[in-house]
């Protein structure tokens, strides 16, 4: 039987979600926990990879397991075995053809910037920037990215040559929360490093290091060498992965 699970994790101690040769990936930790439960090797498939240091509130994965174990049984057993920085939020039965990656309709990421540099409990979870960022300029800059674009300029240099570079970003919301600035992205999918590089570009606009026209020029270049910015991974959160148009419409209405 196929199961859909939602997992939250603190990514700072891990080498990313995907299995790693020289480090521990969150996928490996979950698969080992499932193997203890099912008594045989298990492979999980996530909605997508997150890089080292990136956090998640709502990463989704699927796996196939014995029907005799109910969803709440997997939920309880996994949260008993897994380390405290990886928490299963839900497990439910899914259709046999459900695929965590290919069935996803949208992803929601947040990037968090803080002006608070003297709090040791924030170091792994927010990106510190001492500049007085021009938030209004950042909001104007965000409009450059909204819509359907070729995001080659804002992607990893090692991206697979045949992987599509065109993505749709429906909404970018920038809000001030005390000492923090939160940039929220809702799109149909994102290339590797895309959210971090877009965030870094918006930060550069907020610092008045580049203009909005220059940001637009970087996007329109469609050149993986055009953007020299990449924000640290510790400020990035995968908030939600959605699988229906209704979920997307509700999110857009409330964002």
Written overview of the protein:
By secondary structure, this protein is an alpha+beta fold. It folds into 2 domains: 2-93, Alpha-Beta Plaits; 106-254, Alpha-Beta Plaits. The chain is 27% helix and 27% strand. It has helices at residues 26-38, 71-81, 135-145, 194-206, 212-221, 245-254, and strands at 2-9, 45-46, 55-64, 86-93, 106-114, 127-128, 147-150, 166-177, 180-187, 236-242. Strands 1, 2, 3, 4, 5, 6, 7, 8, 9 and 10 form a 10-stranded mixed sheet that branches. Strand 2 and strand 3 (55-64) form a beta hairpin. Helix 3 packs antiparallel against helix 4 and helix 3 (135-145) packs parallel to helix 5 (212-221). The two termini are 35 Å apart. The model has no long low-confidence stretch (mean pLDDT 95).
